[in-house]
Each structure stands twice: as structure tokens, then as C-alpha cells.
Amino acid sequence: MSIREILTTLDYGPAPEDASAVRGWLAARDGWGQFIDGAFTAHDPARAIAVENPATGEVIAAVTAADAAELDRAVAAATRALPGWQALGPTGRARFLYALARAVQKRERFLSVLETIDNGKPIRESRDIDIPLVARHFYHHAGWAAALPAMFPGMEPVGVCAQVIPWNFPLLMLAWKVAPALAAGNTVVLKPAEQTPLTALAFAEICAEIGLPAGVLNIVTGAGETGAALVSHPGIAKVAFTGSTEVGRAIRRATAGQGKSLTLELGGKSPFIVFASADLDAAVEGVVDGIWFNGGQVCCAGSRLLVQEPLAERFQARLAARLAGLRVGDPLDKSTDIGAIVSAEQLSRINGLLNIGRAEGAVIHQSGPVPEGGHFCAPGFVTGAATASTLQTVEIFGPIATLTTFRTPDEAVELANNTAYGLAASIWAQDIDTAMDAAAKVKAGVVWINGTNLFDAAAPFGGMRESGFGREGGAEGMLAYLRRPGADDVADDGAEAGPVDLSPAPAPASGMRGNDAPALDRTIKLFIGGRQVRADGGASYALRGPQGVFGAAALGGRKDIRNAVEAARKAAGWSSQAGHNRAQVLWFMAENMDQRRETLARALALTGTPDAEAEIAASIDRLGLIAGLADKLAGRVQSTRARHLTVSLAEPWGVMGLACPHRQPLLSMVTMIGAAIAMGNRVVCIPDPRQAWLAADLAQLCDSSDVPGGVVNLVTGDSAALAEVLALHDDVDALWHQGAPGLTARLEAAAAGNLKPVIRHAVADWAMDPAALLALIAAGQQVKTIWVPYGA
Ligand code: NAI
């Protein structure tokens, strides 16, 4: 036999990982209860959930679906553990996190095998990616625990956190959730996915073994109902969820108005863009890591391959050849590339989608036959799927990507953004301009250039649009588990001012004026797209102050909000301007406000606002400070892996809805509008309806200060109803309000549609200190993390 023949016929021999330690561990128990207050409760066979090995279908363990009493006990244990955990101080907590990291490292082999048996992922992945990253997460966050007072002065933990995680990276998702929560001084009740609870239970054993104080981490098992009961539990202060967009939406609705802070890491349909200049082999190998990694059961999988035409034919040929060489089979075999799909249900979901795709005319190229007995899916790719077809739009969550060609970079970006999701994007090009231009334009929380699926504990990860909100990892991830003392303790801004009367003005009568007020026949208009416009239908309401009716204002409605949102969308140029250009406009506003002190004082006097002079002075200062900050808060460089530059850029949300409070009307409105537009947002602002006169002054101020039309839009009327219209609107990217809890519930529920974040920083005194202002300004930003190769 020639060497050539030997090399071409050479096949891998089996190289199974030794699973005896894990099998022994599994055999030692009949079933698992909950891990509450540092100990396991008894397993209850009547509430058993069978856990199977997806590669064989064999039942390997039984866990107990937690009941309401167990959830109560878990939350109570976490609540009791809070003061002691916080009293340990930064270094004390850091020691425990270091101990957890080391204990995970010591058991890397055991945990990798357990993860593979429970989830079906290849041992190469659990051993080389999942478990090392788990250890890295605890090390990194041990550092945050120690550095807390230095890096987050004045902030405090949120309280008891409910964390619900999926089955695709069971222990890694636990680490992403638990490490920052504990580092910040919170305690946790975590629910792993019902399909893959075992590494979480092994982790509970590790916690007990290293002596983590009882109640600091509690683990409850169960399915969706358990998760739903946990997130809605009244003892919970913060909910962190990773999973499907559908369940994320349900959680948003279920927790609306409960005063819980919420982060959602949801699904994706991430583009994998290959430009003509790409290194072809590297890009094809990227697909292996992008969509075939973990059987495609990855929220940020590169599931839509977009390839530039000149390269497309060669790319597809090379991809097909690479696909043919993939080894699908026993996940415990060290030479297996693709393991089993997590469950029969998930496999049939994938196959169901592929059948729909076939019926819609798509051609599915899959690798050869797969082993029998387990839930295996042949990896592949799809051609001929129309842009709006099922396979192009629905998250398959299996090892199948669509392949589409494009001609120009603009077309690539258009296709990339043609999805409701915005989790990740992978861009392949050897010319830097093309790559960076696309990176700037794709709507994604994470962008990898000439790479894919790179993760690190220091790199903020999370989505835009319907991929959720909030970030995990790095400083941004820590912020999700911290709060400013006193924030949100301001109950109800509107109530102290009493109900708003929106009845129309009495018929104009000559001589009928408020004290020092202009004539009644001046109806304040709305300010939309840089123009003063009447409300749709021409309705108006009377403006009333201590001296009686002093004017009338347009009563804006649904249509006016729609027009304002459209105007704001059109003003997109504002978002791509340099920060210093925006700074100049804001500075100009401050200067012009200085010239308008008298007019503003008159407007404030009309509504009987106390301390008007001081408020005007503070508002001018505030605009000046915000102008100064407009080019200073651009993001940061993260210390992740060697040979990578990982930058977290602060991007604007896009169009923000602002519902302004009654308290300190000028200062609050100027702060909210200023902070939002300084970061590049365009705003639809709903002033307190009593302050329409003041809002009209602000509109003039914008006009005379070169604020481009559409960047600031002001719509007066029933502010709660208008805010709800904004919350429901799909073209509004974030909503910021100061309203009462009742309003919060309505807005949070309404915002579940496009999953826009609803930000409520209840502010007691708008003459806030600079640190509090910085936190407010951060409300106008979302983070895009970009990974670029850097250094040899
Ligand atoms: P899922 O979103 O239902 O499950 C994720 C976690 O949420 C599990 O722990 C589950 O028990 C829990 N859960 C379910 N309903 C809940 C509720 N109403 N309240 C609170 N917690 C709840 O995901 P599932 O059904 O396992 O997978 C379905 C599809 O979701 C997949 O095909 C995939 O497209 C997507 N998915 C996305 C993930 C991601 O990381 N983005 C992860 C898992 C699934």
C-alpha cells in the first residue's frame, strides 16, 4: 500500500473518553431534590423529571420538579443569606469565587464528561471550551468581587436574583449568571433547564464542598412552570434569563410592574458575512465553529451565511467538502465533531423546520447518515431559501445554516439586518475598510471580525432588538447586578401633583388671561420633525396653573406619536455624527438657554414651579456638562484573549421614547433629552402635560440651536396613554420614563412586543451628583462588542 493510499483510506479509530467516574456518580443516587440553604432536599419520585443521555436515549438520572413550597424555601434561604454574604466584604467574597474557580478546574475532566453525557455535545467542546470558560468566569469575577469598591463606588447589590438558563451550555450559562451575581454581593436561586440539570447539581456539590455559606446559591430544578413561578416570586429583586425569545417575552409580561430588574439574553439569527476578499479556508473553517459548533444549538450561531458573489461558487464547493469530512457520532469520542441534539423534541423541531423549508423550495445539503439510537441530526446548509422564507427567518437551533449570495457591501448589510434579532455577526474580509464598515452597520450586540463564537468573561455579551437587552461579562455585566442606593425608591412622581385635567380650554374670550400670561388664543403646538404642528384632529386641552387657565396645548394622540417616531427615524444622521459635533450643538443649546432665562422663568411661573431661577441655572449647567460628556463616553477596551482587540462601543439605541416627570420640569426634561441625544439617540419626548408651555420654549431652543429636525420631537397630551403608544411601537428602540409603578406595569407589558428595554431611574432630586448623572447617561447607550484580530 502506498503512502498516498494509506493516507486516503486512514480513518479515525475510536477514542472514547473514560466516563466511569461520572457513571459511578450517577449510579450513587436514585434521584435529586433541590439544593436549598446549603443542602439537598429529598427526591420526590411523584414529581420526577427523567434526565436522558441524548446520544443514547438512556435515562441517566431523575430530578424533582420544585413545588411552590420549595421555591418559597429557596427564596427565603437566599434572602436570609444576603446580609452575611454582603458582610463578608469584597475580599471575603472574592476568596469564595476563587475557590469555586479552582474547584471547577480540578474537576474539569469530570464536569466535561458529565456535560457531554447530559447534553450530547462533543467532549472536545465541553473539555476545551465550556468548562475552561466556566473556570475563567469565576476567576474573572473573583477579581470583580475584590475590585467592587474601586470600580463601582457607591453601588450596592440588587438582592435575591432569580436566574433561569437553557440547555445549550448548561454549566457555562450557570457561570455567566452566578459569577457576577455573587461577585456583586447578591444571592441566587437558579433553575437549570429541565433537559440538562446535572452539571448544575454537581456544581451545588462543589459549593457545599468549598463551604460557600448556606443559601448564597440555591438550585431548583423543574420545567417551564417552575421557571415561571420563580421569576414572578415576590422575594426576587432581579431576573436574569437566557433562552428563547418567546419565553423572554412571557417573562417580560409576567414580571411587568413587579419592580424587578430584568436582563434577557434571547435568540438570534446571526449573519456570517463572507466578503470577496476573505481568506476562503479561514472562512469555511469559521462556518464549522459558527453553525456546526454545539450542533448549531448556540444563540449566536452564524446561521445565515451571506457570501459575496465572486467567491460564492468556490465557497460552496469548499464548504460541501468540509461538511463531508465532519464526524457525527458518539459525543464521548474525542474525534467526534458533531454530537447529539439535546432532546427528541428539539430534533423533531429542527426536522419540522427543514421539512417546511423543503416545501418552500429550499435545497438542503446535509452530510451522510447519522448514528441510530440517539437524537442525531446531520449537519448541513441550505441554498435557494427566499429571504422571507421560514429557514431564513426562524431560529433553527440546529446544525443547519442558510447560504445566500450578495453583490455589494450595502446589500450584505441590508440582508444581515433583515431580521428582528440582533445578537451577533461574524464578518470575514481581508480588507479592513470593508470589514470595519460592515461592523459599524450591522445591528448586533457582538461582532467578530475574521472569527466567530469567541467568548470571554471580560467581553460583554448580549443582544439588540428582539435578542434581548442587558449584557453579561465585563464591567457592563457587573452593572446588571448592582444598583445605586435610593434609585427607584421614589414611588410616584405624578401623584404629588395630582391628576392632570386634559379638558379643552374654555372658548377664547378677550381679556381672559392668567397672571402675566399671553393671550389664551395661543395654542401650543406639537414639535415634530423640526416643525410646529397641530395635533391630529386639532384637539387641544387647557393649560392650568395656580392663576387659572393660561393657555391651551395640542392634545397629541396615537397618530401624532407615529408621525414623531417616523420623523425621529428619518433623523438617523444624528446617530452617526461624531460625539464632538453633538457636543457643539448641546453647548449651543446651553448658551441659548442662558439667553432665554426670562422666557423660561415666565413659563415656569405659569405652572407655579418653585425655585425657577435655580432650576434654570442648574439646567444651563446640566446642558453644558452633558455637552462636555458627549464625546467622552464611547466605550472601553476589554482585556480578553491574547492577539485580540476586544472593544465595547457605546452605541445609541436609535429612537428613544422619553416620558418626562412632573418634578423639576425644566431640569428633568433637559437632562433626559440632553443625555439621550448626546449619546446619539433621536427622541420622542412626552413632556408633563402641565408643562406644554415650557416644552414649546424648549422646541424653540432646539430650533435656534441647530438641533436637526426630527432629533427632538415633543408630543403633549395624556402622557401615560402616549407613553403606552410609544411602548407598543415597533420602531421605538428604548423607552425611558419616571412614572408611577402602575404606569411601569403597563409600559413594561406593552414593551414586550419588540422587547425594547423600559428604563426607569426614579429620580428624587434632578440636581443629582455627577456619578448619578453618568448612570443616567448610560441609559442612552447599548454596548456593541467587537472582536478584531490584533497582533500576530
Ligand atoms: P426555553 O426558552 O423554553 O427554555 C429555556 C429555559 O427557560 C429553561 O430553563 C426552561 O425551563 C425555562 N422556561 C420555559 N418557560 C418558562 C417560563 N414561562 N418562565 C420562566 N422560565 C421558563 O427554550 P426551549 O423550549 O428549551 O427551546 C425552544 C427554542 O428556544 C429552541 O429551539 C431555540 O430556538 C430557542 N432557545 C434559545 C436559546 C438561546 O440561548 N438563545 C437557548 C435555548 C433555546
Counting structural domains, the number is 3
Low-confidence stretches: 509-517
The name of the CATH superfamily of the largest domain reads Aldehyde Dehydrogenase, Chain A, domain 1
Predict the CATH topology of the largest domain. Answer: Aldehyde Dehydrogenase, Chain A, domain 1
Order of strands across the widest beta sheet? 13-14-15-12-11-16-17-32-26-25
Number of strands: 32
Please supply descriptive tags for the structure shown above.
single chain; about 800 residues; alpha/beta; Aldehyde Dehydrogenase, Chain A, domain 1; Aldehyde Dehydrogenase, Chain A, domain 2; 3 domains; ten-stranded mixed β-sheet; six-stranded mixed β-sheet; 32 strands; binds 1,4-dihydronicotinamide adenine dinucleotide; Ald_DH_CS_GLU; oxidoreductase; oxidoreductase activity, acting on the aldehyde or oxo group of donors, NAD or NADP as acceptor
Tell me what you see in this structure:
The protein has three domains: 19-266, Aldehyde Dehydrogenase, Chain A, domain 1 (3-Layer(aba) Sandwich); 271-462, Aldehyde Dehydrogenase, Chain A, domain 2; 524-743 and 750-758 and 768-789, Aldehyde Dehydrogenase, Chain A, domain 1 (3-Layer(aba) Sandwich). The chain contains 27 helices and 32 strands. The strands form eight sheets. It has a ten-stranded mixed beta sheet, with helices on both faces. A hairpin with a 5-residue loop joins β25 and β26 (644-652). α11 crosses α12 (309-324), α20 (579-595) runs antiparallel to α22 (612-629) and α22 packs parallel to α23 (665-678). The longest helix is centred in the first third of the chain and has 29 residues, at 123-151. The two termini are 41 Å apart. Bound molecules: 1,4-dihydronicotinamide adenine dinucleotide (NAI). 1,4-dihydronicotinamide adenine dinucleotide binds next to α9, α10 and α13.
